[in-house]
Each structure stands twice: as structure tokens, then as C-alpha cells.
Amino acid sequence: MIRMNGLSKTFGVGQAKTRALKQISMEISAGETVSITGPSGCGKTTLLHLLAGIERMDEGEVWIGETAIHMLDEDELSKLRLEKMGFVFQSYHLIPVLRAWENVALPIIARGMNRKEAREKAVEALKLVGLAERAERYPSELSGGQNQRVAIARAIIGEPKILWADEPTGALDTGTADQIIGLLEMLNSHYGTTLVIVTHDSHIAARMNRTIRMQEGRIIHDGSTSL
Ligand SMILES: Nc1ncnc2c1ncn2[C@@H]1O[C@H](COP(=O)(O)OP(=O)(O)OP(=O)(O)O)[C@@H](O)[C@H]1O
């Protein structure tokens, strides 16, 4: 269960002040699949960053299960992210000097798995996203869509409890995007991973159980996706 209460965030000061989030309160149950939609600048990415503890809120609380995110220090947040969360960002966030498999294996190596075993698991995850034969390549030797698939493999390798995705299919063609969303859905159905996906794509939003629509830092609609 993810629970947030009175979440607010303002960027800048004086004339340049932007109230990115205004008193957001809601709950997301374990195993739900949720899309967050809304016009550019309405606060979607900020909300995701606050929930994942990437950015600090000004006011409010976030609970993930029994853990109070707003009370944790940076080390505790890093540990929580490593153990419980997966991330997919539009800009991949891959490490350029590491090969595809090494990027994918990072979360499990950080958790203490030895390199040989981690490599095997990473190649398996790359197989799931159709890239096993490119395991030795560096990010600069892969296309945008392929790098996004590497990022997805890295996000799913640790079977996270929660997967946060920010426009995960923005750079992909429709076929590849469908495939990626299918993988995320598989993660949800096999491991009960909660999916929270920021997207502009109404087809992806329609595939989630629940759609949250934001406008100017507030939630203006929250409901089950009509089938
Ligand atoms: N680091 C920052 N410094 C100043 N303003 C920021 C910062 N990050 C976000 N903002 C502002 O906060 C508001 C919400 O931004 P956010 O990125 O959350 O929107 P979004 O809904 O994800 O937009 P998009 O769909 O374009 O990615 C915007 O007005 C943005 O300009």
C-alpha cells in the first residue's frame, strides 16, 4: 500500500515560484496498476519523484507499507529503492561505461549477488526484452528503443514491489511500446508488482486498472479505467 497525505511541493521563490503539487492525498493498493495522466507541467513527474523519495516534499507524508518515506534519510531511501523499487525513465539513466548486461545487473550486484550469477540473470532479463544477443554492447552502441529496453530489464531484474515509470514508451514505436507494456503487465501478474506509470499515451493508460488525471498540481479525476 502506498499512502500519501497532503503532499505539496513548490519550486523556486518570488515571481519564479511554481506550486507543482497542491495537497495531494490518495492511496494505491499493493498490486494495482495505475496511470497518471494530465497536461504538460501539471505535476506528474514531481509526484512520482516525491513518492519514490527521489525528491523531498515541502509538506505532507508518504507511507509505503509501514515505512514513512518522509522520515528517512538519504541512505535509508537508497536502500529502500534498491530493495523494493524499480525505475524506468524516458531518458534511460544507463551508465555509459557499463555494458548492457552490467547495467541490467547493477541492482542485484548491489544487493550482493556475485558477478557470474548476476550476469546469467541479466542475460535472462535481456532475453525477456529481446536483447540477449546485445548483452555485451555499451549504451552508445544501441538505439534509443533498445536502451529503453535495457532500462526495463534493469527495472524488472530484482522483481520489485513497486515499479515507477515516467513516460516509459515515449521514444518507442507502437509495436515496441506494446511489448514493453506487456512486460510490465507480466511483472504485475507474476510478482504482484504495483505499477505506477506517468504517460501521455491514452492506449497505455487504458491498459492500467486505474487512471489518475492531474491538472495544475491537483488530482481532478481518479477512477477505474472503463473497459
Ligand atoms: N527542478 C525544478 N525547478 C523549478 N521548477 C520545476 C522543477 N521541476 C518541475 N518544475 C515545475 O513544476 C511544474 C510541474 O512539473 P512536472 O515535471 O512535475 O510536470 P509534468 O506533469 O511531469 O510535465 P511533463 O508532462 O511536461 O513532463 C512545472 O511547472 C515545472 O516547470
Strand tally is 10
Which structural class fits the helix and strand makeup?
Answer: alpha/beta
Count of separate structural domains: 1
Task: Give the termini separation.
Answer: 24 Å
Give the spatial strand order of the biggest sheet.
6-7-8-3-9-10
Classify the beta-strand content into a percent band: 25-35%
Gyration radius (Cα, Å) is 17 Å
Mean pLDDT: 92
In helices, the fraction of residues equals 25-40%
Enumerate the spans where pLDDT stays under 50 for 5 or more consecutive residues: none
Q: Identify the overall geometry.
A: globular
**Describe the biggest sheet?**
6 strands, mixed
Q: Please count the helical segments.
A: 7
CATH class: Alpha Beta
CATH topology group: Rossmann fold
Q: Look at the structure and name the CATH superfamily.
A: P-loop containing nucleotide triphosphate hydrolases
> Which ligands occur here?
adenosine-5'-triphosphate
CATH architecture: 3-Layer(aba) Sandwich
**What is the ordering of alpha helices and beta strands?**
EEEHEEHEHHHEHEHEE
Summarize the structure.
With 227 residues, this protein is of the alpha/beta class. Helix content is 36%, strand content 27%.
Description:
The chain is an alpha/beta fold. It has one domain (2-224): Rossmann fold (3-Layer(aba) Sandwich), CATH 3.40.50. The chain has helices at 44-51, 74-84, 100-110, 115-128, 144-157, 174-191, 202-207; strands at residues 2-11, 18-28, 33-37, 59-64, 67-68, 85-89, 162-166, 194-198, 210-215, 218-224. A hairpin with a 6-residue loop joins β1 (2-11) and β2 (18-28). α3 (100-110) packs across α4, α4 crosses α5 and α5 runs parallel beside α6 (174-191). The radius of gyration is 17 Å and the shape is globular. The model has no long low-confidence stretch (mean pLDDT 92). Bound molecules: adenosine-5'-triphosphate. Adenosine-5'-triphosphate is lined by residues 11-12, 18, 20, 38, 40-46. InterPro entries: AAA+_ATPase, ABC_transporter-like_ATP-bd, ABC_transpr_LolD-like, MacB-like_ATP-bd, P-loop_NTPase.
